[in-house]
Amino acid sequence: MEHEELKFLIGKTVRQAEYVNKINLSSADGFTYHSFSTDGQSEDDKLSAVSSSLTSLSNAATSQLMNTELISTVIESADGNMVLLKTRYRGKDAVLCFISGPQLIVGKARYYAKKLAEAISTIPADQSAV
Amino acid sequence: MIHKKIAFIGSVGSGKTTLIKNLSNTETINTDVKSSIDIGKDLTTVGMDYGEIRIDEDLKLGLYGVPGQRKFSFMWDFVKQGLWAVVILIKNNSTESIKELEYLLDYFAIKQDTPCLIGITHSDLIKGETSKKHIKNILNKRNLVLPIYSINANLKENAELIFRTLILLEETNNGT
């Protein structure tokens, strides 16, 4: 089944982390693979495009201006945090976007997002899906 | 120091990234990633290209290239603020690229007094009727008279022609 393993990993993270508002996985060029949202609001394509742009800009800033490698992009707001991470999904470059409520401190949000990105990158490539 | 912004807009694969690379005096910043769909090339811009031309000690031109896909239009909004000039690139004989012209003219609110020119790219590679006639029709409907050039984004001379034309357009608009 398409994206079943991905859905399982996201569900597991949502249960462990709590206060997760949205988790979105997209291709590096901004096409949605899968999106999870607790509020039922669906702006997946917009979120995928924004995630892709922000990650590429962060990547450009770190690699081309700081001569180092991007780890994550963290956006803090009054209503929560957004963590963006580069990952791989079924052998292709991808971007994970993790949005949590203000109850989850930024360090924890980053921890769960990183753990999820690492788990997603281990999902083997499957020619029949993606 | 005065910083003027030039936006490079146009459909996917029209040559924005290449042109900025050739125009810039400095190493450009680019945000290309591997495309996951067939767009006729491997890489696509998803963030923004940035380069600079330093005219003299007091004037610097910032070259901003935006992604061609409409889903990234939030990046267009960012670049749109405080623009000095706009360069619209059209891929020769591409229906999609010509159709996009109307949308871009509206989105970037191009008026006759906006320093703006249109560059037709890939004329050397794609044979057949040039897009110039279609572009002129679109401009005529809007009472716009803009310079239209066939350019090769890989040639530095073509990039310089664009820059010199924009300066000339501004001087004409200012009556200087």
From TrEMBL, chain A:
Natural source organism: Marinicella sediminis
Protein name: Roadblock/LC7 domain-containing protein
Pfam family, one: Robl_LC7
Alphabetized InterPro entries for the sequence: Roadblock/LAMTOR2_dom
Domain Roadblock/LAMTOR2: 15-85
From TrEMBL, chain B:
Keyword GTP-binding included in the entry's annotation: yes
InterPro entries associated with the record: Gliding_Motility_GTPase, Gpn, P-loop_NTPase
Keyword Hydrolase: yes
UniProt KW keywords: GTP-binding, Hydrolase, Nucleotide-binding
Family: Belongs to the GPN-loop GTPase family.
UniProt-recorded name of the protein: ATP/GTP-binding protein
Species annotation: Marinicella sediminis
